[in-house]
Amino acid sequence: MDSLNPAPADPLLGLMLAARADERPGKTDLGVGIYKTEAGDTPVLRAVKEAERRLLETETTKAYEGPHGNPLFCEAIGELTLGGLGDRHTAFTTPGGCGALFIGMQAAKLASPDARLFLSDPSWPNHEGIAAALGIETVFYPYVGDRTGAPDMDLVLKGLEGARAGDILLLQGACHNPTGTDFSAEQWVRLAEEVEKRGLLPFVDTAYQGFARGLEEDGANVKAFLERIPEAILTYSCSKNFGLYRERTGALIIQAPGAKAKDAVATQTAALVRASYSMPPSHGAAIVATILNDAELRRSWEEELGQMRGRLNGLREGFASALVRATNDDSLSRIAEEKGMFSQLPIEAEDTLVLQREKGIYMPGSGRVNIAGLKEDRLGELAADLASYLVR
Ligand code: PLP
Ligand code: TYF
């Protein structure tokens, strides 16, 4: 092992540890994407606590579940995303969204060994990291054009001009990480045409369903997109919308072009699962299945999810107006329209380090901020601290 050099820290997880270690009382952690209350806590959701209590009382075995994990969980996530699994779908419980991404990309590579992964620029750093670990080449396509922040379809399509049949096109479900800006319904239709025309394999990563407008609203474009195309891979994370982060709860759903292809892809993917973690952890998936199959728990979960969404959207409005006031730059009002946990500030990477050192304000070098890390009563102060560093 003498040949190894230390790996660079994950830009987001490294920042999480640095912010935790900072003892300044007024520090502001806008780094890693974890939902927080005004008090800065990330509590266990009420429905999760109740589901856990029920599971503790009723669980009768810890015997293995198998590579697909919990079938009730898989069906429930199939219902949330596709309106139900059909005979062309195979679904797996996975260790978080990351586990789904890892196995999903491996399956895509198995089907098409020379496939490259097309990623939005910018994208979530771990997309590139997982592809690199699997020896999949990545190609970036431009995503947002100007500072209005909306995805620019002409630029996206230009970026896909070099894509070959079998290449993988990574798209994110609602609440794009890191920009907070998503494709419109019309743009998803255009993407489906492009996927068909070029024979691409769409790979839709969904990690924030329910944080933009509502559960159904946030899933509608992806659902319609999947109905339009023959094959696709869908990855799902329950880390944020169920607050299950450390339980490592996610799903991988593969849509095959037909029932025969489905059998092949299901068994090949199960073999990939067996060769890595063999079977997924059960606890988080059992919690989600319990919540989604019980009317009262589901109502309670949807209510709490709505509260998280409401707090994020409220903070966005306050933050956007505080920034516009502090900078006189109206273009920053886009932050109020963006969705989910993140927006990107126009800031140089070196200035994020200055803010960290001098003001205890933590964000990655990309300028991405976790909206949930904002404090409602200190938005003006924060905007004033940021103002002189924002690029106009
Ligand atoms: N995909 C995106 C876009 C994310 O932001 C995240 C992070 O939460 C994930 C996938 C995977 O998250 P996890 O592995 O914690 O479920
Ligand atoms: O983007 C984020 O901050 C979240 C959390 O390796 C995260 O998605 C970050 C890095 C990572 C896993 C999760």
UniProtKB/TrEMBL annotation:
Cellular component aspect of the GO annotation: cytosol
Family the UniProt entry places it in: Belongs to the class-I pyridoxal-phosphate-dependent aminotransferase family.
Record text on subunit structure and interactions: Homodimer.
One MF annotation (Gene Ontology) recorded for this entry: identical protein binding
Name recorded for this polypeptide: Aromatic amino acid transaminase
Domain Aminotransferase class I/classII large: 27-384
NCBIfam families in the record: PRK09257.1
Swiss-Prot/TrEMBL keywords: Aminotransferase, Pyridoxal phosphate, Transferase
InterPro entries the record matches: Aminotransferase_I/II_large (IPR004839), Asp_trans (IPR000796), PyrdxlP-dep_Trfase (IPR015424), PyrdxlP-dep_Trfase_major (IPR015421), PyrdxlP-dep_Trfase_small (IPR015422)
CDD domains: AAT_like
Pfam family, one: Aminotran_1_2
One record GO biological process: L-phenylalanine biosynthetic process from chorismate via phenylpyruvate
Required cofactor(s): pyridoxal 5'-phosphate
